[in-house]
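Here is the promised in-class demo. Please do not try to memorize the tokens; focus on the logic of going from shape to residues.
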């Protein structure tokens, strides 16, 4: 288990090394082309140091036609999430919208948003609350107040704005493909009161109709299941092999798992949980019924 930037740096280095190998260039030859010392190329390829977006672009330019436009965009996004303070902080991460909130958001949350923004798909299991990508503003505000008691209202409002801004990935071109399994407790827990829950449930039913959203409910009647070990998210990315990552949220931190055996275990767990959940249409019917009764 590693924190996000370290995982991203290593993955980025592996991909840049693979591209260089495809060109037939040595690290020393690449260094001469871009005007660096050979050791800098080596540090980037082994993930020992952060890298600025501008440096990634220089390397990709040196590799020419072996890099397609979509892969270039993804590698630049990966570099933004991999950059650390030693690589120039926010400058190294580009000008993504979430950095306007860098005085408010912990670095780990910004790393998570960066992964989410660059992913092709996300698979998530939630036991307690509606996933952030599917929350209404009032529900997000109630969750934030409950989780961060005593936070001044302006900061609560700013965190809600971030939550809503993240949801743009569901309507991007191409959109994030979201598969979510929600424990029935998520639908029945009265966060924010009956009115807030009613609107949240109606919103869930509406979002579930989006073609790239696959929403299922795990009913109480299932009893014990693998998801009881805790919520998780699996991000998958286009055009780069072996880049999936599992994110586990804890009270004070997030952990990122990217070993093959971890990914296989969590992918298998997600499939098993999905198999026990209600089909999407039945899930939507249950959500709508609960909204009417709220």
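The designed amino acids, position by position:
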């Amino acid at each position: 288990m590693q924190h996000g930037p370290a995982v991203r740096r290593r993955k980025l280095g592996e991909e840049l090394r693979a591209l260089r190998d495809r060109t037939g260039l040595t690290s020393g030859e690449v260094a001469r082309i871009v005007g660096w010392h050979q050791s800098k190329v080596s540090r980037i390829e082994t993930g020992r140091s952060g890298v600025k977006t501008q440096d990634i672009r220089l390397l990709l330019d040196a590799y020419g036609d072996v890099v397609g436009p979509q892969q270039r965009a993804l590698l630049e996004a990966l570099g933004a999430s991999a950059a650390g303070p030693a690589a120039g902080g926010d400058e190294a991460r580009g000008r993504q919208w979430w950095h306007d909130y860098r005085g408010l958001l912990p670095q780990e949350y910004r790393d998570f948003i960066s992964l989410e923004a660059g992913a092709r798909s996300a698979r998530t299991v939630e036991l307690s609350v509606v996933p952030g990508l599917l929350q209404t503003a009032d529900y997000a505000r109630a969750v934030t107040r409950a989780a961060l008691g005593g936070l001044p209202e302006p900061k609560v409002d700013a965190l809600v704005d971030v939550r809503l801004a993240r949801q743009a990935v569901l309507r991007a071109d191409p959109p994030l493909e979201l598969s979510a399994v929600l424990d029935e407790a998520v639908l029945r827990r009265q966060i924010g009161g009956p009115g807030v829950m009613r609107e949240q449930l109606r919103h869930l039913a509406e979002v579930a109709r989006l073609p790239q959203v696959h929403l299922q409910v795990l009913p109480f009647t299932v009893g014990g299941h693998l998801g009881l070990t805790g919520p998780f998210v699996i991000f998958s990315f286009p055009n780069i092999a072996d880049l999936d990552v599992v994110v586990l949220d804890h009270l004070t931190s997030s952990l990122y798992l990217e070993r093959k055996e971890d990914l296989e275990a969590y992918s298998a767990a997600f499939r098993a949980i999905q198999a026990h959940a209600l089909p999407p249409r039945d899930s939507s019917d249950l959500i709508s019924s609960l909204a009417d009764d709220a």
